[in-house]
């Protein structure tokens, strides 16, 4: 297992799609606050609150990044290995499919987490520097929101990994996942308004709870739910993915 993890980590470090996505997010995180600070060519930082910039702009925009950008990585990091024949070589290495899948899921989740944390961290740092650290968010709020972002990024990554194993083609995987994460929230919400049992599922799903992590005041009970749901989701979809991979014919 240790060798498998090291191998997957090496692949992630060398993955061009991963670094292209990171560079794109770094550029976006740097340029976006500059558009706010430089209005009509005039620099104005006094009225800009880093707290609001982080809570509403960084975390708000990141809600799309967490669910959409790792879809691209999933297609290239997981699905493409089937078409390239890499997965067949890994399968013939003597390791169990359970270990192979979870090592790949673990490293893919790390990649998804790095992608998900890049944009809000960069925006906060750039905003703080440009504003002279005006009205900074509380450190416990930053730690809580980034920690929850980490958990939800891993949970969504576990769903992406299952789809990647099913389709085994990078183009199909990326296309399906992007459409799924764009449309599923709305469809799930609409159904929850019509059926009470679906409403209960929706209220305890990562799709709804992820939108609540940026709130400033969260009770201990809600915080516990926000922590447990993505962890359970990761475990459940991790097991589903491993079962699918066990029965998958690798050509």
TrEMBL record:
Taxonomy, superkingdom: Bacteria
Name the keywords, alphabetized.
Answer: Membrane, Transmembrane, Transmembrane helix
Transmembrane residue ranges: 18-38, 64-84, 105-130, 150-167, 174-192, 222-245
The species is: Cytobacillus praedii
PANTHER family reported for this sequence: INTEGRAL MEMBRANE PROTEIN-RELATED (PTHR37305), MEMBRANE PROTEIN (PTHR37305:SF1)
One Pfam family linked to the record: ABC2_membrane_4
- The protein's name is ABC transporter permease
């Amino acid at each position: 297992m240790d060798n498998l993890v090291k191998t997957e980590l090496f692949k992630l470090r060398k993955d061009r799609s991963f670094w292209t996505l990171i560079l794109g997010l770094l550029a976006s995180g740097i340029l976006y606050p500059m558009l706010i600070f430089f209005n009509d060519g005039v620099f104005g930082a006094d009225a800009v609150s880093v707290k609001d910039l982080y809570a509403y702009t960084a975390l708000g925009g990141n809600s799309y990044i967490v669910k959409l950008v790792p879809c691209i990585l999933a297609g290239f990091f997981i699905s493409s290995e089937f078409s390239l024949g890499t997965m067949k070589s890994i399968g013939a290495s003597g390791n169990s499919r359970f270990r192979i899948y979870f090592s790949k899921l673990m490293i893919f989740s790390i990649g998804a987490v790095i992608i998900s944390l890049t944009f809000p961290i960069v925006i906060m740092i750039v905003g703080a520097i440009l504003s002279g650290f005006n009205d900074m968010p509380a450190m416990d709020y930053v730690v809580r929101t980034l920690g929850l972002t980490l958990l939800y990024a891993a949970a969504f990554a576990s769903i992406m990994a299952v789809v990647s194993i099913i389709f085994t083609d990078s183009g199909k995987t990326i296309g399906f996942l992007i459409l799924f994460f764009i449309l599923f929230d709305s469809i799930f919400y609409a159904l929850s308004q019509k059926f009470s049992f679906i409403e209960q599922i929706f209220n305890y799903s990562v799709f709804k709870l992820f939108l609540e992590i940026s709130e400033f005041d969260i009770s201990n009970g809600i915080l516990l739910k926000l922590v447990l749901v993505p962890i359970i989701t990761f475990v459940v979809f991790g097991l589903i993915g491993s079962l699918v991979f066990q029965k998958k014919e690798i050509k």
